[in-house]
Amino acid sequence: MHDKIICSVVVPLYNEEEVLLETYKRLKKVMDSLKDSYEIIFVNDGSRDKTAPMAYEICANDKKIKLIDFARNFGHQTAITAGMDYSEGQAIVVIDADLQDPPELIPKMLKKWKEGYDVVYGKRLARKGETFFKKFTAKLFYRFLRRMTEVEIPVDTGDFRLIDRKVAEALKLVNERSRYIRGIISWLGFKQIGIEFNRDKRFAGETKYPLKKMFKFAFDAITSFSYKPLKLASYTGFLLSFCSFIYLLVVLYTKLFSSEITQPGWASTLAVNLFFNGITLMILGIIGEYIGRIYDEAKGRPLYIIRQTKNFSEDKSNKITMR
Ligand code: UDP
Ligand code: MG
Q: Looking at the structure, do residues 276 and 312 belong to the same domain, yes or no?
């Protein structure tokens, strides 16, 4: 191997044909302006548009660009994981493909890293070009998550960050499937610092996080970092059984000792039934969310399958990873 790579840039790609060339150009410009040697790792997460052929073409012309081509769509967090797994740099930067995270911030991150920080995360001040709904739910989610968990996860922080090689190696030891990477990195500890930036709007194309994926993502984050929903479920259960026990005493007393004529009262029966059934189903649902994830872990399938790689020193496809 020739000289040691200082900085790896990991870019997950899912149907990004409209932005890929521009992202490549802007990233390259920033990286070329630095003195450090670098590699850019594109991870094609099973795109259905022209992203893959475009990425292959870029790789054919520029050996500094490497490609991991997934066999299907495995999800954003998994794509990032694969990129980190196969990176060689002493520092690894993860950045979205849509230029919402400005590549021009990378030199600043590297500067902080050279000052001795192990994790430099980008903290979003403003988010441009996103719907009120997205911004509102994101804000709410980050704050809710903070209350739910003991791990100190910085709010309003995405996956745009730099991590040191030793953090990436530690991350390889974390085998969980429902991955919430920014949470896991916080959990790892190390010396962390945030730098603030304004999040731009998407350069082109639309978000690859529809509501369904957002929900899955939020549930992954909460269930991997908190047992509180389960606790809440059992507390609610206890409280409700306590109330019903008291009410049972009242009912028995009325029936046996009072002269009051008991009514047929289907309305109250129905109301109580509906209420309790609702709560029970909700609690079962919460438990189900956890069991589903336990099931995923138990199967122990590999986290991702690679169809092909380009420009790595050896082909990484079909390589059994330790995960
Ligand atoms: N992405 C991915 N796999 C997916 C969904 C998204 O690799 O299943 C990538 C996408 O190409 C982009 C990044 O993850 O580089 C963030 O996605 P997006 O910008 O759509 O999310 P948003 O910024 O709207 O939250
Ligand atoms: Mg985006």
A: no
